[in-house]
Specification:
Radius of gyration: 21 Å
Order of helices and strands: HEEEHEEEEE
Helix content: 10-25%
Strand content: 25-35%
Largest sheet: 5 strands, antiparallel
Number of helices: 2
Structural class: alpha+beta
Length: about 140
């Protein structure tokens, strides 16, 4: 009888260790975001559509359900501020680990039909807000 209880306790401990270290059940539902402002073509200051070569990346490939860029100062006072770039998933977006500002992403479409990304100004702080299912992330950035 003692041997059975010991085996049950060992099984529960092993299951708990597995759940903590090998699943994401106890991790916060956040996305780590980084950015890079690179001049990919030295002879051109901006790319063909007049946007800077602004690259965003996340810590792992994600199927985004929403991506938007808003001015950070305006977003702090008004959460419903009109975004400069806003994509939503129409059904099932492809997993993405990095993307350019203004890039069309397969499986996503503009939130407002026919809208295009607005040009970004220098020395203004913007906020990128991304959602991938239950996961959310925000990242402030500025173009120098």
């Amino acid at each position: 009888m003692k041997k059975n209880w010991f085996l049950v306790v060992v099984a529960v401990v092993l299951a708990a260790v597995y759940a903590v270290y090998f699943t994401d059940w106890f991790t916060p539902k956040t996305i780590q975001i980084f950015h890079s402002d690179r001049n990919l073509h030295p002879q051109l200051r901006r790319n063909a559509v007049g946007m800077p070569s602004l690259i965003f990346g996340v810590n792992r490939p994600l199927k985004f359900t929403e991506i938007k860029v808003v001015p950070a100062a305006g977003f702090q006072t008004n959460r419903d501020i009109l975004p400069l770039w806003h994509l939503v998933s129409d059904s099932n977006s492809v997993p993405v680990k990095s993307f350019y500002y203004g890039q069309p992403i397969r499986g996503m479409k503009p939130a407002v039909l026919g809208s295009r990304p607005e040009p970004l100004d220098t020395n203004i702080t913007y906020r990128l807000i991304v959602t991938a299912g239950k996961f959310k992330g925000e990242h402030n950035f500025e173009i120098k």
